[in-house]
Amino acid sequence: MLEAIDLSLVNWSRAQFALTAMYHWVFVPLTLGLTVIIAIMETLYVKTGNVEWKKITKFWMVLFGINFAIGVATGIILEFEFGTNWSNYSWFVGDIFGAPLAIEGIFAFFMESTFIAVMFFGWNKVSKKVHLLATWFTAIGASLSALWILVANAWMQNPVGMQFNPETARNEMVSFWDVLFSPTAIYKFTHTTSSGFVLASIFVIGISAWFILKKRHLVFARKSIAVAAVFGLLSSVYLAFTGDSSARDVAQKQPMKFAAFEGLYNGSEGAGLIALGFMSTSETDPSNENLLDFNMKIEIPNVLSYMAYMDWNAFVPGINDLIDGNEAYGYMSADEKIERGKIAMAKLKDFKEAKKAGDEQLAEQLKTEFMSPDFQENYFNYFGYGYITDTAMLIPSVPLSFYSFHIMVGLGFYFILFFFLALMYVIKGKLEQKRGFLRLAIWTIPLAYIASQAGWVVAEVGRQPWVIQDLMPTVAAVTQISTSAVQVTFWLFFSIFTLLLIAEIKIMLRQIKIGPKMEGGQN
């Protein structure tokens, strides 16, 4: 079925989407977190009447505005790519994927864009409380915007609340609430937004640390660090809890992804968590890039089992168990899933042919059989496997998943320590004396971005080859367009996004060098 598909087209389309998504994600987390921090700072201004808090709020608001404007441009292109590069996917998901994106555009983004105007231009034009309300609504709008996008993404990872319509060959929503409140959507939203809070807190502390090192605007810097340290510490601890919940959901809904980011090939009871490890090509099959051994690893016994199933002795399947099957623990082989997927496809094809031939009685019989609960559970749920020609396609990049996951987790624990130290130094009044920590704070800013990007690599690379888990692989989702057209737009977007990123960095650095200042009279 996939013989006519140009794999270079698939790879270039994936590369283009990954490029756009990762550039977009450079801007989004700072927007998510900085809006909340700005709202907290303005709340302190309204509560205390201290104009220093107004100066602080307006400075961070300028940096937020620069980041927000450039982030919008990349986000718009990202949504258009669903239609240009992934039209088969866009058709197959029916009204499910489009609904949350439409809500995001009509409601959340509209709300955010409306109140951001008041936030930026309403100083001295509306009352303090109205302006503060607009700032909080901007922050809420940013999170709501993220919510609907993450709900759509979560459905791709765990398709629920839907029913396949053989008449149209589309998935249609049957329960909006199941889609919105699926555990995958909840965990993805809480984990992603809290990661944005952490990144923004590090950004504020790092920039403020630079001012202290330069002995400029010391009161501004200390107050900014105080707010960001408290908010960041709470957010980083919350991030760890949401990450744990998210990992447990992945273990149960996407066991191959879970096995890949732990480098687990052979499952076991009481599986250990690899805290640190370095992988190398397997001596048994050097040609297989996904078959790896560990040169060195530090493993904590039983922890992986507890992480996955809250049972220290639970069986955690490895890659081999999921490919070859493990009857003892109820895991079906990939070959069996492929056969069931082909049966589901054949039934759908027979129905279509009967409809085309005008045999309504046979078509109705085939549709009834196709839509029966037994057939849906035992065959349609493996529909996407019918496209798979080699079980090796079902294994994501193990090294990329493994290292991305461990970098993300390792930096996450570092951030908790970082915020704790920042808060202690603020409380003890020793920030100016801790010049080593202040320099470290500046270098922690890029580490926050690395951790954020690594999280999305884990989420998206780890679920390959699926664009919709078990229902549609990436190779079946791509638009049949010229590979050269995708290549041209890839390099075009790469050039544009890189220029936008350079422009943002330059503009931000210029604003940071100018520093905070009071504009006009009091609000």
Automatic annotation (TrEMBL):
Keywords: Cell inner membrane, Cell membrane, Electron transport, Heme, Iron, Membrane, Metal-binding, Transmembrane, Transmembrane helix, Transport. It is found in: Cell inner membrane. It holds the Pfam family Cyt_bd_oxida_I. One of its GO terms (biological process) is aerobic electron transport chain. PANTHER family: CYTOCHROME BD-I UBIQUINOL OXIDASE SUBUNIT 1, CYTOCHROME D UBIQUINOL OXIDASE. Belongs to the cytochrome ubiquinol oxidase subunit 1 family. The keyword Cell membrane applies. GO terms for cellular component: cytochrome complex; plasma membrane. This is Cytochrome bd-I ubiquinol oxidase subunit 1 apoprotein. It comes from the Bacteria. It comes from Sunxiuqinia elliptica. The chain crosses the membrane at residues 22-46, 58-78, 98-121, 133-156, 196-213, 225-241, 403-425, 437-459, 488-509. The keyword Nucleus does not apply. GO terms for molecular function: electron transfer activity; heme binding; metal ion binding; oxidoreductase activity, acting on diphenols and related substances as donors, oxygen as acceptor.
